[in-house]
Write a structure and sequence with these properties.
single chain; Growth Hormone, Chain: A; 16 helices; globular
Length: 394
C-alpha cells in the first residue's frame, strides 16, 4: 500500500506554484494572430490576458480561507482539476468567447498553487525558515515564465496555438498526478477545527497592523515591477527606437538579478531574520529606483541604465518579497492560507493598477515610468521602516 510522505518534496511545491504563471506567458506569442483566426478584434483577444489576471487575483481570496478550514490537499486538487478543465476548453475553443471562458477557468484553478504553496511552506516551517523555502520555490519557479514565451512561440509556429494549451494540459496533468501521490495534508486537524470555529477569518488578520505593513510593502514592491512591464517596452521600442528584440535581450538581466535575490534570501534569511532581510532588500531597490531617476535627469537613460537600475530593483525585490510573504503568513499560522490569499490578491491588484497607470500616461517621455518606479521603491522602503518601528522589531 502506498504511503504518502509526511512532507511534500520541494519539486511538487515548485511545479504547483508554476502552473498559473506558465499559462500566462506561454500564450503571449499567440495573441497577435488570434484576432484573424477567430474572426474577432484584438481588444477581445486582450481579454484573454486581462481577465486571466483578474481571475488569478480574485480567486486567491477564496483558496486561502477555504484551505484553512478544509485542508491544503483537497483545495490543491480541486484547483488543478479546474485548471485542467480550463486548458481543455481553451484547446477546443471554437470562438473567442469560449476561449475567454476557458482562460478564466484556467486562472481560477491555476492560482491554487500560488496561494497554497506558500501556506504549505508555513505549515511546515517557522517564519525565518519559511522565508528561505519560499525563496527557493520562487527562484526555481522563475524559470517557467522565462521559458514559456519561447516554448509557446515555437509550438505556435510548428503546430498552432491550440497545441500550447495541450502542452499546458499535459503539464498540469503531471502536476496533479504528483500531488495525488506525493502531497500530504499539512494543515493538521486541530488548526482546521480552530479555523472552522472562527467566525470571520479576514477580520482577524485585517485587525493586525503588522499584517498591513507586510502586505503593503509587498504590494508596492510588486507595483514597481509591473509598472516596469507596463511601460518599459514602449520606452525602449517607441521612445528610444530600438527593436523589440533589444527588450527581450536586456530582460535577461532582470531575471538573473531577481533569481540572485531569491538565492540570497534562501541562503541567509534564517540567520539574518525576516525583518532585516526586508530592510536590506527594500534599501537595494531604493538605490536602483533613485539611480534610475539620476540617469534620467542627467540625460543618460539608455537600455543599459534602464535595465541595470531595474536589475538592482529586481535584486532587492528577490530579497524583500519572499521575506515579506513569510512575514505576512506568519502573523497567525492558523490562518496562513487566508493571509497568503489576501497578500497575493493585493500584490496582483497593485501590480495591475501600476501597469495600467504607466501605460496610460506614457506619450512622449519616460517621465511617468521613472516617476512611478521611484515612488514605488520609496513607499515600499518607508512602509517597512515605519512598520518595523511601530509594530515589529528590526
Amino acid at each position: 500500500m502506498w504511503n504518502k510522505p509526511e512532507k511534500p518534496p520541494l519539486i511538487i511545491l515548485i511545479v504547483a506554484t508554476a502552473v498559473g504563471p506558465l499559462a500566462i506567458n506561454i500564450f503571449l506569442p499567440s495573441m497577435p494572430g488570434l484576432a484573424k483566426e477567430l474572426n474577432t478584434s484584438y481588444s477581445m483577444v486582450q481579454l484573454t490576458l486581462s481577465l486571466y489576471l483578474a481571475g488569478l487575483s480574485v480567486a486567491q481570496l477564496l483558496y486561502g480561507p477555504l484551505s484553512d478550514r478544509y485542508g491544503r490537499r483537497p483545495l490543491m486538487l480541486i484547483g488543478l482539476g479546474i485548471f485542467l478543465a480550463g486548458a481543455l476548453t481553451c484547446a477546443l475553443a471554437p470562438t473567442i468567447s469560449v476561449l475567454i471562458a476557458g482562460r478564466i477557468l484556467q486562472a481560477i484553478g491555476g492560482c491554487a498553487g500560488l496561494v497554497l504553496g506558500r501556506a504549505i511552506v508555513r505549515d511546515l516551517y517557522d517564519r525565518n525558515r519559511s522565508a528561505s523555502m519560499i525563496a527557493y520555490i520562487t527562484m526555481a519557479m522563475v524559470v517557467a515564465p522565462m521559458l514559456a514565451p519561447t516554448i509557446g512561440g515555437l509550438i505556435d509556429e510548428w503546430l498552432g496555438w491550440r497545441y500550447s494549451f495541450y502542452f499546458v494540459l499535459a503539464f498540469g496533468g503531471l502536476v496533479m498526478l504528483g500531488c495525488v501521490f506525493f502531497l500530504p495534508e499539512t494543515n493538521d486537524a486541530s488548526r482546521r477545527q480552530a479555523a472552522s470555529e472562527a467566525r470571520v477569518g479576514f477580520s482577524g488578520l485585517l485587525g493586525v497592523p503588522a499584517f498591513y505593513s507586510y502586505t503593503l510593502q509587498l504590494s508596492f514592491s510588486s507595483a514597481v515591477f509591473f509598472g516596469f512591464l507596463g511601460g518599459a517596452p514602449y520606452v525602449v521600442v517607441k521612445l528610444m527606437g530600438y527593436p523589440p528584440s533589444t527588450f527581450g535581450f536586456y530582460f535577461i538581466i532582470i531575471s538573473i538579478f531577481y533569481m540572485s535575490g531569491n538565492f540570497t534570501a534562501a541562503r541567509i534569511s534564517t540567520k539574518v531574520g525576516t525583518d532585516r532581510m526586508i530592510l536590506y532588500g527594500t534599501a537595494i531597490s531604493l538605490v536602483g529606483g533613485w539611480g534610475l531617476v539620476a540617469c534620467y535627469l542627467s540625460g543618460w537613460l539608455t537600455p543599459l541604465t534602464l535595465f541595470g537600475n531595474m536589475g538592482l530593483i529586481a535584486l532587492g525585490n528577490g530579497i524583500s518579497i519572499t521575506n515579506g510573504i513569510a512575514g505576512a503568513i506568519s502573523i497567525d499560522p492558523g490562518q496562513a492560507g487566508t493571509a497568503s490569499g489576501i497578500s497575493g490578491f493585493t500584490q496582483m491588484a497593485f501590480g495591475a493598477m501600476s501597469s495600467m497607470l504607466v501605460g496610460s500616461l506614457l506619450v512622449n517621455t519616460a517621465t511617468p515610468l521613472v516617476a512611478v518606479m521611484a515612488i514605488g521603491v520609496t513607499v515600499s522602503f518607508a512602509i517597512h521602516i515605519f512598520g518595523a518601528k511601530m509594530f515589529k522589531q528590526l
